[in-house]
Amino acid sequence: MNQSIHGHQVMEMMAKSEQTYTKQALKAEIATSFGENARFHTCMGSDLNADQLIEFLASKGKFIESVEGIKMPEEHLC
């Protein structure tokens, strides 16, 4: 079984990149960085795939979403 990765690691990856991602590009970057079949957890959820993690983080207001895409400023890291 794959080890679960905390969602904060994805947030940190995004912040360090200083990029704006579409959801599809973010999913691809997560696959590149953590593996195609990576599973994630947060303080409030577990056994999440990349799509579920992206939706969860978006629902919690962790990203800045604009017409250009999704961005994770370092000040949004907890």
What does this entry look like structurally?
This protein has 78 residues and is α+β, with helices and mostly antiparallel strands. The N and C termini lie far apart (28 Å). The strands form two sheets. The protein has a two-stranded parallel ribbon with strand order 1-2. It has three helices and four strands; from the N terminus they run βααβαββ.
Q: Estimate the global geometry from the Cα principal axes.
A: globular
Largest beta-sheet details: 2 strands, parallel
Distance between the termini: 28 Å
Question: Based on DSSP secondary structure assignment, what is the total number of beta strands?
Answer: 4
Strand order of the largest sheet: 1-2
Structural class of the helices, strands and pairings?
A: alpha+beta
Query: How confident overall, as mean pLDDT?
Result: 90
Alpha plus pi helix count: 3
Supply Rg. Answer: 11 Å
Beta-strand proportion: 15-25%
Order of helices and strands: EHHEHEE
Uncertain runs are none
Helix content: 40-55%
Topology:
Layout: E1 4-6, H1 7-17, H2 23-34, E2 39-41, H3 50-59, E3 64-66, E4 69-71
Parallel strand pairs: 1-2
Antiparallel strand pairs: 3-4
Give short descriptive properties of this protein:
78 residues; alpha+beta; 3 helices; globular
